[in-house]
Amino acid sequence: xxxxxxxxxxxxxxxxTPVSERVTSVPNPVTLLQTVFNYVVDAPVTFVRxxxxxxxxxxxxxxxxxxxxxxxxxxxxxxxxxxxFFEAEAQWRRDRMVDQEIxxxxxxxxxxxxxxxxxxxxxxxxxxxxxxxxxxxxxQDRYGDLGVHGNARTCLMKQKHRMMEERKAKENASQ
Length: 175
Fold this sequence. Notes:
Number of helices: 5
Shape: elongated
Helix content: 55-70%
Number of strands: 0
Number of domains: 2
Structural class: mainly alpha
Radius of gyration: 36 Å
């Protein structure tokens, strides 16, 4: 690019908004209001907020590592203890959600293994297939046939009936 530029050939267009430099003895009310706002409102709020953040940084609370205490099972609740029934139901729902997530994680691992191994998936993903079969069988044994509206009481009754059937089968096999 040539160093000798012809300014007459490439004229700079004039600016559209003229810059006015007004100098008056009266201060601008906008800057006065901004300064007053900064000292009266913004500075105290900023100070309080920073103080709260310093206090919170001393005692960090990690909500995602919250551990719920185990409540008594529904079978351990006394008759008429509705608070215990409610807590047992909430515990059962949490356990069911955890079990659903476990099944989903194992299923995702199996899918990733199948994707990664390709045609060799049957021999290289045998452990994942076996683990998925165990996890889904355990989930089906505990929560299967309960439906959407299943609760802790129906799950407990289902387990009781399954245990009674297993006991009957054991007695019939021993005779």
